[in-house]
Design goal:
Layout: H1 3-20, H2 24-36, H3 38-48
């Protein structure tokens, strides 16, 4: 795994651990699952926060979960 991927994984897991107050292993497992399913997660979040009265202003294919 590349250094940038590992850095993203660690930053996300630390954030999960702080905000959710879970153990280190649970936070790391959650971060790993989120990063592996990044495209599905972004699509789900766009759909969740979109209104049905007007079309989405963003294209889910152009979004990323985390910006380095």
């Amino acid at each position: 795994m590349q250094q940038s991927h590992l850095s993203r994984l660690m930053r996300l897991s630390w954030r999960i651990q702080r905000q959710r107050r879970v153990t280190r292993s649970k936070a790391l497992f959650s971060a790993w699952a989120i990063l592996l399913n990044e495209d599905i997660t972004v699509w789900f979040l766009v759909k969740k926060h979109s209104h049905s009265s007007y079309a989405n202003r963003v294209n889910p294919e152009q979004l990323t979960l985390l910006v380095d």
